Amino acid sequence: MTEPDYENFVTTFEDGVLRAEIHSTSKMNALNGTMTEELFDLAIRLHEEPVRCLVLTGSDGVFCAGGDVATFVSEDAAGEIRKGASLLHDAVFQLREAEVPVVTAVNGPAVGAGFSFAIMGDYVLASEASYFQFGYPGIGATGDGSSTYFLPRVVGLRQAKRIALLNERIDPEEAADLGLATESVAADEFESRVADVTAQVAEGPTVALGRTQRLLTESTTRGMEAQLAAETDAMAETARTDDFAEGVRAFVEKRSPEFEGR
Which PANTHER family does the UniProt entry name for this protein (predicted)? Predict the structure, then answer.
């Protein structure tokens, strides 16, 4: 199947892995209106196509340097920002609801909206050529794109406030230590490691992995009773999947399972 001709992404879909590489028409891979619409389209594809892993990465040594600030200079900047943020948040919500594991491969600066995209991944690979920066205070703005949702969840409230207040660059090693990234990877090994991780994820039981990521993320806002109820529902629903049946058969037959992602 031919991949869509996006203006701000170059995509490939192979062996269950949908790779979306940011090639923004704005400088420094900045987020613009069309890119937001295309991100929403990518999110919807996770619901409608047999995607087993989404990889979001940047190009030309840049992940995403935030929003296209030049577009904020208008008489109705507040209205335009509300519209853009609303669509962006719809895209993020659809990404999380899809129950497809998301790998963010941070190949360079991840600032502002790029910071938000980076840390929302289920597995975050940070190249040694990258850095993370909250970014929003630099233009007198608050965080969006789910940054204020995920940041305290991955680093804790105290560290989240430090990162937001000081707005300092965070190198990949510190990002991994803090929990912003899952691991820091040498630049010359980065693409190989991305391929290894995504292949391993894509070969797994996609529905179970996706639902597990949701359970873990949502556990921070639930009490134990609600979390256990959610676990029960997810376990029962996942038991209806082909991959569950295959996993059980493989266990009984003492062989490795061959999951198909459904």
Answer: EG:BACN32G11.4 PROTEIN (PTHR43459:SF1), ENOYL-COA HYDRATASE (PTHR43459)
